[in-house]
Each structure stands twice: as C-alpha cells, then as structure tokens.
Design a protein that fits this description.
By secondary structure, the chain is of the alpha+beta class. The protein has two domains: 8-71, Arc Repressor Mutant, subunit A, CATH 1.10.10.10; 75-234, 3-Layer(aba) Sandwich (Chorismate lyase). Helix content is 28%, strand content 36%. The chain contains eight helices and ten strands. It has a six-stranded antiparallel β-sheet. A two-stranded antiparallel ribbon has the order 1-2. Strands 3-10 form a two-stranded parallel sheet. A hairpin with a 5-residue loop joins strand 8 and strand 9 (218-227). The longest helix has 14 residues, at 8-21. It is elongated. The chain starts with 7 loop residues before the first helix and ends with a strand. It comes from Adonisia turfae CCMR0081. One of its GO terms (biological process) is negative regulation of DNA-templated transcription. Keywords: DNA-binding, Transcription, Transcription regulation.
Length: 239
C-alpha cells in the first residue's frame, strides 16, 4: 500500500513515530505545540489530534492537559516466581505509590472458592488499590485472601505499602507466584475513570494465583488491570 493512500492523520502519526524512533524527539521531550505541528503538516488541529491519539494509544506519548504532549517509554514489569512489584519499579528509578480503594470482607463465590481452594461461602478479604508511578495512575489491583488464614488482615493492610512485607512480617508467610494468566480487553467504565483513560481504552489483565512457599497453600488470588498504553509485562524464566 502506498503511503499517500493512508488517511492523512495516519501519515502524520507515521512521521512523528519515525521522529521518535530516530531520536529527533527523545523520552521526556515535549513535542511541538498543536499550532506548530498544524503549520508544519498543513492540517487542522482536529486531524493532528487524531494523529497524536494514535501515538498515545501505542504508548509512545502522554498528553498532559495544560502542559502538552511528551514522549514516554513503556514501563516494564517482570513477571516471575517472586511477587516483587515495588522492587521492580524502583530498579527502574520509578517511584511507586498506592491509594487504598476498598477493603471488604466477603463470602467466596464459586470463582473465588475455586481459585483460593476454599469452601463455597468461606470468608474472603478483598484488598483493592490504585497503583501510581510518579503520580500517574497505572494499575488497579484486586487481591483476594482467605479470611480464616489471615485474621486481622484488614487492619494490617492500612499499615503496609507492600503486601509481600505484610504477609512475611505479620504471618510469617513468603508467597510465590504459582501461575499467571495475561489477557487484553477494553477497560470497564470504573477502571477507565480511576486510571484516567479515555473510554474503551485497552488494558492488560493479569490474573495470578500465589501460594505460601512453605506449604504450597494458595494464599492470594490477584486480578490486576494495567494501562495498556504504558505497561509491558515481561515473563521471566526463573532458574
């Protein structure tokens, strides 16, 4: 297909993408203003915005209202046996933080009972948080724990930033990832709002089963929704 057969906004997106790949614009750089780019390409701002939206959905740029459009790099998160989210981000000179969304005591439905290997109706604690990296909302994690195995969990959740540290210090429990399933789908309205994403934006969905290293008992079922435009999940082969 000839380049000039593409819609104009895709041609503009292609040229800006090449500029980023060829380091005309580096990570952290601000792209020229809408007015400057409109004059450069000889198009209306509406056409330019469609081009920039293509790059935003590809995770190449981030549009900050009132500031401009900046070149970004996808954030890589290794997925291995160890559950070490905070450490992986700090190793990339990124600053993770959390906002607690809810802590709920609930009963195990058939799905939770299966994943946590519990009886139907058993006590389950849902601990849900909004994860931020350098103050940018990046994921929503819903962690389900067997309530009988972890008494007073709701109280401890308020005092720890790391689930791994909480389980180790309060329950002498070192958890390992037993399995992880990753898929892609469109963000649901609540998730899109919390992640500050446009409606119908893509997310990466990670479902994990975590077990106690000592006895192999399942201790957590985790469901995490990552912004698809900013995250890369890297599967590690543990030796």
């Amino acid at each position: 297909m000839r380049q000039d057969a593409l819609p104009l906004y895709l041609q503009i997106a292609d040229e800006l993408r090449r500029n980023i790949e060829e380091s005309v614009f580096n990570v952290g750089d601000q792209l020229p203003t809408e007015l400057e780019l409109s004059k450069r390409f000889g198009v209306h701002r509406h056409t330019l915005r469609r081009a920039v939206e293509v790059l935003r959905q590809e995770g190449l740029v981030d549009v900050e209202r009132g500031r401009g459009t900046f070149v970004v790099a996808p954030i890589a998160l290794p997925i291995g046996k160890r559950v070490r989210f905070n450490e992986a981000l700090k190793a990339q000179a990124l600053t993770p933080s959390w906002q607690v969304l809810r802590i709920v005591d609930m009963k195990a439905d058939p799905k939770l009972a299966k994943h946590l290997e519990l009886e139907l109706g058993a006590s389950v604690i849902l601990y849900e948080r909004l994860g931020l990296i350098d103050n940018l909302p990046i994921n929503i994690s819903s962690s389900y724990f067997p309530g009988e195995r972890f008494p007073e969990l709701a109280t401890y959740c308020e005092n720890y930033r790391s689930i791994s540290q909480m389980l180790l210090k309060e329950y002498n429990c070192d958890h390992l990832r037993r399995s992880t399933r990753i898929s892609a789908r469109v963000a649901r309205p609540r998730d899109a709002r919390l992640l500050k994403m446009p409606a119908n934006s893509p997310i990466l969905l990670s479902e994990s089963i975590n077990a106690d290293q000592a006895g192999g008992t399942v201790i957590e079922y985790g469901v995490t929704r990552f912004r698809g435009d900013r995250m890369e999940l890297v599967m590690e082969h543990d030796v």
